[in-house]
Design goal:
The protein is an alpha+beta fold. 48% of the residues lie in helices and 22% in strands. The longest helix has 17 residues, at 20-36. The chain is globular.
């Protein structure tokens, strides 16, 4: 499975952004629709679904959300990477200067 990359954006009056949880929910919904639409044989899609469910239920999601929002308010760009291998989900925060 390839990594899932979520890049939250800081909202301003002129530019709408999305928080980390909103992006993860959006990816989850798209993945679930594809699975319910009959794409159940796609192993990568099923792994992506499992990784997103794990991430959304994880206490790490709250920590990463708070950290990404803090960094966004400081004017930095962040990306959260989610990967799922051997039944284990891992998360990472990449900070761009």
């Amino acid at each position: 499975m390839q990594e899932i990359e979520l890049t939250p954006g800081y909202s301003t009056r002129e530019i709408p952004g999305k928080c980390l949880k909103c992006l993860a929910d959006q990816e989850y919904t798209e993945c679930l629709r594809a699975l319910l639409g009959g794409d159940t044989d796609n192993k990568d899609l099923r792994r992506t679904y499992e990784a997103l469910v794990s991430f959304l239920q994880s206490p790490d999601m709250k920590r990463l959300r708070e950290e990404s929002e803090r960094l966004l308010s400081d004017g930095r760009k962040v990306t959260v990477r989610i990967s799922f291998e051997d039944g284990k989900t891992t998360y990472g925060l990449k900070i761009d200067e």
